[in-house]
Amino acid sequence: MKAIVCNEYGAVENLGIEEMPDPVAAENELGLKILAAGVNFPDGLLVQGLYQSRPDTPFIPGMEFCGEVESLGAAVSGFDIGDRVICSSHKQSAFAEKITMGSNQVIKIPNTIAPESACNLLVAHGTAHHALKQRGQLQPGESLVVTGAAGGTGLAAVQIGKAMGAKVIAAASTAEKLALAVENGADETINYSEENIKDAIRDRTDGKGADVIYDPVGGDIFEPAIRSMARNGRFLVIGFAGGSIPKLPINLALVKEFSLVGVFWGSFVRNEPAEFAKNMQELMQMYEQGKVSVVVEKTFPLAQTKDAIMHVMDRKVKGKVAVII
Ligand SMILES: NC(=O)c1ccc[n+]([C@@H]2O[C@H](COP(=O)([O-])OP(=O)(O)OC[C@H]3O[C@@H](n4cnc5c(N)ncnc54)[C@H](OP(=O)(O)O)[C@@H]3O)[C@@H](O)[C@H]2O)c1
Predict the structure, then answer these.
(1) Is the pLDDT assigned to residue 244 strictly greater than 90?
(2) Could you tell me the pLDDT band of residue 275, with boundaries at 50, 70 and 90?
(3) Is 124 in the pocket of ligand 1 (CB under 6 A)?
(4) Which range marks the domain in which residue 184 is found?
(5) Whose C-alpha lies nearest to ligand 1, atom 27?
(6) 138/261 same-domain check
């Protein structure tokens, strides 16, 4: 099979396509043909050695995919050849033509969902859903500020926050990105290239401040944003796409009585499989009801996976991109 291989940690540009042996399904595994793989900001961090986990090299990157069952291990039940599944892979390896997975690690989906959408349903929407539901305890009528609101996890948070009944305030760096957030349900917008985000949040919340802030960006907007928290608010730490990991003057949490809440979706999936399964059922229901969708801005062939990753890392992506295999 063909696969994208990271032979040593370094620039995304170094990723090349190589011929690799086809994986063979073990007793309790499914042999899967990958139809499309989702592209996430952490893919770029991982191959540079900048992510929280560092697999041994060489490895095939790619953390989520949509695939079709090609073969069944002897002990597998409940699946047929041709079934379509999605999976967030604990062993990476999604930027490849084939993969094997434990039958309990995949989620069966209807064949009607296009692979380029399906492959992007888990990481971004899964993170946003877990963040707003379990970690943020978002309530109907509360104000929710989403930074990086046109990015992968940001746009998912806009959609899911709206579906949960919040007043969604999208914050992003360009008018074009904010227009996409509005198309996806945002009630108000803040262009943080032009406005001070602290003053803007105060303005959009009638002086109260934000009940919940969902922040995948960090960097320079973190501190002004956190200074606009409402009393009893929850600031959700999602990621640091802005580059730097900010520091917090901790007295702010005391003075303003807000909570700083960490979110790590991968840890949730590993440690709370039953809750994760319930979340996925709820998410699929929201998808079927049209309350959430995957906005796929662009697709790339497998050989151009590095361009797909760079499109995300270069701050260009609006919604998601997918690698079609
Ligand atoms: N905690 C978790 O479980 C979890 C799960 C998935 C992802 N993450 C993390 O969340 C972060 C965002 O992931 P994502 O998939 O939403 O990424 P994404 O699609 O690239 O979106 C990130 C957004 O960050 C903003 N940004 C600001 N400065 C940037 C820069 N220098 N380079 C790139 N983007 C910049 C951009 O919006 P503007 O241009 O509008 O500012 C961009 O749309 C990453 O750090 C990722 O590792 C965390």
Answers:
(1) no
(2) very high
(3) yes
(4) 123-266
(5) 242
(6) yes
